[in-house]
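Anyone up for a design puzzle?
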């Protein structure tokens, strides 16, 4: 039996939609779920000072989820292409 992730990605009608789904699922199941199970909470942002600079360190899983949402929005805003003769 295929997992939800592979089923959703295989049946996605476009590459940008598949990438968006993959990033969202990966970000949600990756670091966020692991942190929630192990530590009981998810640390989103850290602020470090060093050598006279302010450095923001952020959760890579949140970046993946955000980029996935952008990819899905990009896909939705693309004009629909008419089907080719082999798709009909």
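Challenge accepted. My sequence:
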């Amino acid at each position: 039996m295929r997992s939800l992730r592979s089923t959703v990605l295989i049946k996605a009608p476009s590459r940008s939609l598949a990438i968006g789904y993959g990033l969202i699922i990966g970000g949600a199941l990756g670091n966020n779920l692991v942190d929630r199970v192990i530590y009981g909470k998810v640390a989103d942002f850290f602020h470090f000072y060093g050598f006279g600079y302010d450095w923001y360190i952020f959760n890579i899983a949140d970046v993946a989820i955000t980029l996935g949402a952008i990819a899905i929005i990009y896909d939705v805003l693309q004009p629909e292409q008419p089907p080719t003769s082999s798709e009909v």
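A detail worth pointing out: Helices lie at 4-11, 15-39, 60-77.
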